[in-house]
Amino acid sequence: MIPDIHEEVAIGKVYDAALVRRLWPYLRVHWRLIAFALLLIPLYSLVQALPGPLIGTALDALIGVGPSEELGWLAALADPPGDLPQIPWISFLLFLAMAIGAGVEYARMLSMTVMGQRALRQIRGDLFDHVQRLPLRFFDSYPVGRLVTRLGNDIESVGEMFYSGLVQLVADLFVMILFASLLFWIDWRLALVAMVAVPMLAGAAVILRWKVRQVYRLVRLKIARINAQLQETITGMKVVQLFARERRNYEEFREVNKEHRDAWITSINYDSLLSAAVEMAVNLTIAFILWYGALRIGRGELGLGVLYVFVDYMRRFYRPLQDLSAKYSVMQSSMASLERIYQLLDEEPEAHELGQAPQQVRGEIVFENVTFAYKDELVLRDVSFRVAPGERIALVGHTGSGKTTVLKLLLRLYEPQAGRILVDGLDIRAIPRRDLRRHMAFVLQDVFLFTGELGYNIGLGQAPQSEVRLPRVPFTSRTSCAGCRMATPSR
Ligand SMILES: Nc1ncnc2c1ncn2[C@@H]1O[C@H](COP(=O)(O)OP(=O)(O)OP(=O)(O)O)[C@@H](O)[C@H]1O
Ligand SMILES: [Mg+2]
After folding, report:
1. What is the CATH number of the domain that holds 204?
2. 343-360: pLDDT as tens digits
3. pTM, entire model
4. DSSP E strands: which ranges in 428-491?
């Protein structure tokens, strides 16, 4: 089983003002792009309002009645200048409206995506920089898989909020208000009929939303577990294969994989239900409007063109509701990711240090009553010793006795709980970590190679590549090593 350490608590908020406020510095620099996208919204909505009356007026003209009065200036738009024939003129206007609409949509998408990607790049960079400055203590208890999720999936998910979240929500709201107003302006009685479904849909949305939230939380948990298991299996592949764990790992993975699928299917189920409910409500309303509209057309109270405009506007009014639940889950996942990113950003980094490094180091090392524990269990208790400059010493002890720990303390990778460590009589806490480490060479017990050439790993930012020499001596059983003595295990 994957330990519970990988299971994160999902956060259920859809919108959290405090979280979004913290995003502001990242967005502020791009205010021009945001303003541009927001300014396009009215234009985008107005362009959507044009085809209805144009086609409605064309219909009226085709059946030989004049333009509907109720459409007012909307119908006046369809009046051809001079003595141009009306229908081709309307077709031309329709084409124009669609071309403008496409242009506006293009500009809107592009500006939001560019803004989002720029902000994301900044956040990702800050997070990476921050993670590198966290104390080693932090990495002892934070699984790598989770860190990678933070820097990858979570950042992406915040990005979605930029593209399809915030500005899109403003646009949706604008469109709904605009079309509702237009509907009431054209014919308030018909408009009331058109709005009948709204309270019903709101009720359905609230109930389904609550369900979606719960399932969504489950999906996140399963994703975290899948990621954790993938990461651990891949990093530990040597162990997995050595101990022939493949079969059992696969069984475990299959279980999580299945739970993830089930959670997803449930969430899609609710999503589809909401979508279908909106679709049904819209169609029922249209049927109702047709019936009621036909009655009034019969009484000569209403033109055919108006009825067409009505149906068209009503569809546009309901459209944003249709994918509400999809937007809802985008916002929810973005908020959850944002919160996790902030949790990570709030981890205290190693303090920025002042102080001056000694130019020349003689190399005297003194441990004075050093006591240290990684967590609760003491690894070093009251350790004191002195190493004179130039002196060579070896720390000998059984495995796990704390030899490496002594070196980690000397390098200030960890800080002792009590006692102090002196280099040339100077408390190492007064020496900036960078400077302290520059004076020491540390060969790790477990070699870690970064991806790339061996030479790159040897130089690793310290020596220029030209100074790295790699001997090309293939190892054979006869390769002798000067100064090596074969150790024979004693029985
Ligand atoms: N990051 C860590 N978090 C918690 N405990 C740790 C951590 N690193 C080491 N320990 C524990 O501290 C103790 C001392 O570890 P250390 O690596 O210093 O031993 P060592 O003497 O170098 O052993 P070896 O001879 O195997 O290299 C061990 O019990 C080890 O399990
Ligand atoms: Mg060791």
Report:
1. 1.20.1560.10
2. 888 888 887 677 676 778
3. 0.73
4. none
